[in-house]
Mycothiol synthase
Amino acid sequence: MSEKTLAARLGTATEPTLPHHEDIAQWRPATRDDIDAIHAVLAAADAVDHPTWTTPRSEIADDFELEHFDPASDSLLAETVDGTVVASAGAMLHPSREGGELTVYLSGAVHPQWRRRGIGTQLMAWLDTRGRQQLAEAAAADASLTAAELKIFAEEPNTDQQQLADRLGYRAERWFSSMVRDMATPAPALEAPEGITVVEYTHDRDDDARDARNDAFRDHWGSRPSDPQRWKQFVGGEFFRPDLSRIALDADGQIVAFCLASVNEEDWVTLGASNSYIDLIGVIRTHRRRGLAPLVVSRTLQAIADAGLEKAVLDVDTASPTGANTLYEGLGFAATERSIALVTRV
């Protein structure tokens, strides 16, 4: 890495200019009134790029509540002459400054009927410029920051998005696989180690669970600490299911492992079966190599089966240092779709 400071490497923040495209009558920031229009674009894109699940409307709405996301500066919509939104994008600077590092997450989608016209090229260029502007402004305000990255998650079938990112210097660094388990196969009955108790998740443990999550994921690739606002949205959201989620406690009552699950019935149609999505699985670093991950997953699988759901779904980093993909295969999960993390570093 260069000996220059991060601020010097990033240079002066450049204001992104609005794109120009003959098929687009207006490029403008998004507002809360556009949530349904954005959701319509993403739903159409999801059906092509990852047809087994659809982005929930509430996930889009949650972004508009975040303190670190300013739609007026951080979002962009492409609108046709009749007022139809055909593309959307957002650049979000993560609030964490842990380790002197910054991360901007870039996301965008073009309605499939409007692809291959150059709209995505314009959208990606705007996103990259806005993301770099966010990094430059943050680095100029904090001399302790030493590293920065911009990150895009692309679905493997969406090669157009991958090519656009590649032209701007983004490189594939990690692959994430969706895995599905048929709940007709009974969950393994695993015994807890001495001194460990597995219990159903309850909301009085929300703060403890966030602390456990941040410890467990501290050394995982690309992971940033979950901030209180985003965590509250997750555990307080409409899809989170405490009754299916399990936490492992040590003799002092500390959360040492967790398996947190949700249910979105809209995904039942796209997957073709009732299912629960396992959002987070983790073990705090002081309690690894004791079999706690398969333990909490097996207990959550049993809860999913008891609820009468047909499938369990999760996503896994295929190069995880914990060997998670091998663990889940051993628990009966089979890989289906893949997504790719595309990254450029400063």
